[in-house]
Design a protein that fits this description.
By secondary structure, the protein is mainly α. It has 30 helices and four strands. It has a two-stranded parallel ribbon. It has a two-stranded antiparallel ribbon with strand order 3-4. Helix 26 runs antiparallel to helix 27. The radius of gyration is 29 Å and the shape is globular. The relative contact order is 0.06.
Length: 609
């Protein structure tokens, strides 16, 4: 369903006024269009429904004015639903309202008297009501956030009425339970589901009851109900995955994995069991290989039975798997203090043992120009020189002051990067997919973004970063620009490709935030293409070993982030894994959470997507 019509700026009142004017002039088609617009903006406004009734009276029911096609405007769908109910066809009307709710669950499409009237359920078959409730549930999160529940309460009223009139219909009671559970009415959900399985025992009834118990925190009862569901239908492997997930939630991982193995023994490619098994194996031992295997399965099985969130769940909040790491070093710490004090660094000073990464220095001087920066001496090896001979210099240095060596990117590049840049992503393959919109940019534009990052947008994200840590936006732009480089000339064989050559050049260039961004892009390539994993793992190992060697002579502000990157790389050798673990001060190679002084901002950022 399209979101709007030709003039989305019109309010419901304006649409209604135009509808009435067209109706008075006998222009029924224009009146219908404006009424659809009014319903889309104010679906429960009595005046809109009164005018719709007038239109129906003028056109013999009005249904022909609101035909349904594949791209029907949601307001027209809702108008047709109400006209169907008025014409004595409420079952069809209810289905259309449920479709509108699936399109926009936060809008109160069903908040009208004919839906909540007790007599409606007497005119509908209980099977039909159950199907409508399940249709609504399919569009909802579980649970629905408290703020979004009011728009859905008319359906709960419908369920209450139906359960009263049909108190022994198992399917209806189960579907009603599913809706009540999503809307936070857990006790009611248990009562309805319990009654349903008593009246008509079934696998789905036990599943609904198990879910209701689980939402109430009654795990033992939930497992018992789900176990009965398996007894009723041993071939439904999705229930095995549900039992495994429930056991894992209470820390019984070994038992949980037994259930996934039972499911996989029956069908090794069953997607729910595969996703759950990899997630639980990773939860048990922290081994990245389980997540990489899950990513491979997702790539090789694009037609899964439904969308799964196991990989995103495991990557959420993990350094470089689900977010970039905060920049490190005393200069960035001083920058954050200046931002917190809102004094542009006046009176502040920071003394560095070696030249700071150029991106850090540029960001600090732009945001906190009053900050006094001193470099103690000429550290060796010189951080202003590439770590290997470089074909592309990003920076010129006048003593310790960097300036971009490349021209600014085009306006198109600035616009594109602002649309995709974000410091968090579900998992590396999702980040790769999200960067495809940058594929049309030229390499020079993407390189220009690395040294000329645009200002943060005037959005909620941009404002949040501006008052918390402006370095996050700059690093985010660099990450996504490098992901854009990964989409350059993808028809070229990897070994001699432009994308590999340019990214390698950045990885071994001047020690900078760009180093991290380029290495992440290479690691992302390894996540999405098994054929390049050994090559990328070798690059990661060499770059980390180099950073460790340099760190013995002078501080390396990007060293911790490079170690996190290494632990996010597929097929990394054990020695490099051990090195990364030592650099992070971790005892085991389990994927660590970042030591993050900005925990609150990360929570807000990573829950925006």
């Amino acid at each position: 369903m399209p979101e709007g019509r030709d003039d989305p700026a019109l309010s419901a009142t304006e649409e209604l006024a135009l509808a009435r004017l067209a109706l008075d002039e006998g222009d029924l088609h224009h009146a219908a269009g404006h009424l659809a617009g009014a319903l889309a903006r104010a679906p429960t406004l009595p005046e809109v429904h009164e005018t719709l009734a007038r239109l129906a009276a003028a056109d013999g029911g009005g249904l022909d004015l609101f035909p349904i096609s594949h791209h029907t405007f949601v307001g027209a769908v809702v108008a047709r639903a109400h006209l169907l109910a008025a014409a004595g066809r409420p079952a069809e009307g209810l289905e259309l309202l449920a479709a509108a709710t699936g399109h926009a669950p936060g809008t109160e499409w069903a908040g009208v008297p004919w839906v909540t009237a007790s007599e409606l359920v007497e005119r509908l078959a209980p099977d039909h009501i159950a199907r409508v409730l399940m249709q609504v549930c399919a569009a909802l999160t579980d649970p629905v956030p408290r703020a979004g529940r009011a728009a859905l309460t008319p359906y709960l009223t419908l369920a209450r009425n139906a359960a009263t009139v049909h108190p022994e219909h198992g399917l209806l009671l189960g579907a009603a339970s599913a809706l009540a559970r999503r809307l936070g009415e857990v006790a009611l959900a248990i009562r309805w589901a319990s009654r349903g399985v008593r009246c008509q025992p079934s696998k789905m009834g036990e599943v609904w009851l198990g879910y209701a118990y689980r939402s109430a925190g009654r795990t033992r009862d939930a497992l018992a109900a789900l176990g009965r569901a398996v007894d009723l239908d041993p071939d439904d492997l999705a229930v095995y995955a549900d039992i495994a997930g429930t056991l894992a939630d209470i820390g019984r991982l070994d038992e949980a994995l037994e259930w996934t193995e039972r499911a996989l023994a029956r069908d090794p490619s069953f997607d729910c069991a595969v996703h759950t098994a990899h997630r639980l194996r990773h939860l048990r031992d922290g081994d990245l290989s389980h997540l990489v295997a899950l990513a491979d399965f997702i790539r090789d099985h694009p037609d899964d039975s439904h969308e799964h969130g196991d990989l995103a769940q495991c990557c959420r909040g993990r350094p470089w798997l689900g977010q970039l790491t905060p920049a490190g070093g005393p200069l960035v710490d001083a920058l954050r203090q200046a931002v917190a004090a809102d004094d542009i660094g006046i009176g502040g000073a920071v003394r560095l043992a070696a030249a700071a990464p150029p991106s850090a220095l540029r960001t600090a001087t732009a945001v906190a120009p009053g900050l006094r920066i001193e470099v103690a001496g000429a550290a060796k090896p010189d951080p202003r020189e590439p770590r290997r001979p470089s074909a592309q210099r990003l920076w010129h240095f006048a003593e310790d002051v960097p300036t971009p060596a490349l021209p600014a990117p085009s306006a198109t590049a600035v616009e594109r990067i602002a649309q995709v840049a974000h410091p968090a992503w579900p998992h590396p393959p999702a980040a790769y997919d999200a960067a495809v919109g940058l594929a049309g940019l030229e390499v020079d534009d993407l390189l220009g973004l690395l040294v000329h990052p645009p200002a943060a947008p005037a959005s909620g994200l941009g404002r949040l970063l501006a008052v918390q840590d402006p370095s996050i936006w700059v690093r985010g732009v660099q990450v996504w620009a490098c992901l854009g480089l990964l989409h350059q000339r993808t028809d070229e064989p990897w070994a001699d490709s432009t994308r590999r050559r340019v990214l390698l050049d950045l990885v071994w260039g001047v020690e900078d935030w760009v180093t991290e961004a380029a290495l992440f892009a290479l690691i992302t390539a390894a996540w999405v293409d098994p054929a390049v994993r050994s090559d990328v793992a070798r690059v990661v190992a060499e770059r980390l070993a180099d950073a460790a060697t340099v760190a013995e002579a002078r501080p390396v502000p990007i060293a911790v982030s490079l170690a996190h990157l290494a632990l996010a790389a597929p097929a990394l050798d054990p020695d490099t894994t051990a090195l990364a673990t030592r650099m992070l001060g971790e005892r085991t190679p389990r994927l660590p959470r970042p030591r993050n002084p900005l925990r609150r901002i990360w929570h807000r950022l990573t829950h925006r997507r």
